[in-house]
């Protein structure tokens, strides 16, 4: 199967959410930039590991000398996103994932 790459330079929204009842939920990574939206199904463990690795990357980014980006030590209230997933059209289910900065 060919590798799929979805690249968003500066997305409007990135969220992991679920559809379904506990024990029968499907987890999704959803990214939106303007009218472009991608919904990717993933396993519960993948969503937890993704959150952990993003947290580690942000912790490292805080320490980078000359970093032009402002990285807060905790999530500002105005950036907390507990809203529902937008209309989900599953593009594919994840296999191996990589994360880079």
Topology (SSEs and partners):
Layout: E1 13-19, E2 26-33, E3 36-42, H1 44-62, E4 90-93
Parallel strand pairs: 3-4
Antiparallel strand pairs: 1-2, 2-3
What does this structure look like?
It is a single chain. The chain has 101 residues and is of the alpha+beta class. It has one domain. It has one helix spanning 44-62, and strands at residues 13-19, 26-33, 36-42, 90-93. Strand 1 (13-19) and strand 2 form a beta hairpin.
Please, how many helices?
1
Major sheet size, sense and barrel closure = 4 strands, mixed
Number of domains: 1
Strand content: 25-35%
Oligomer: single chain
Which term fits the overall shape? globular
Descriptive terms for the model:
101 residues; four-stranded mixed beta sheet; 1 helix
Compact summary:
The chain is of the alpha+beta class and 101 residues long. The protein has one helix at residues 44-62; strands at residues 13-19, 26-33, 36-42, 90-93. It has one domain (13-93).
């Amino acid at each position: 199967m060919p590798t799929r790459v979805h690249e968003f330079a500066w997305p409007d929204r990135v969220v992991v959410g679920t559809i379904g009842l506990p024990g029968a939920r499907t987890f999704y990574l959803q990214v939106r930039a303007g009218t472009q939206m991608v919904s990717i199904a993933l396993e519960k463990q993948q969503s937890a590991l993704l959150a952990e690795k993003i947290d580690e990357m942000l912790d490292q980014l805080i320490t980078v000398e000359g970093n032009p980006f402002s990285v807060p030590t905790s999530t500002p209230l105005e950036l907390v996103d507990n809203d529902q997933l937008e209309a989900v059209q599953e593009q594919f289910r994840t296999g191996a994932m990589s994360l880079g900065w």
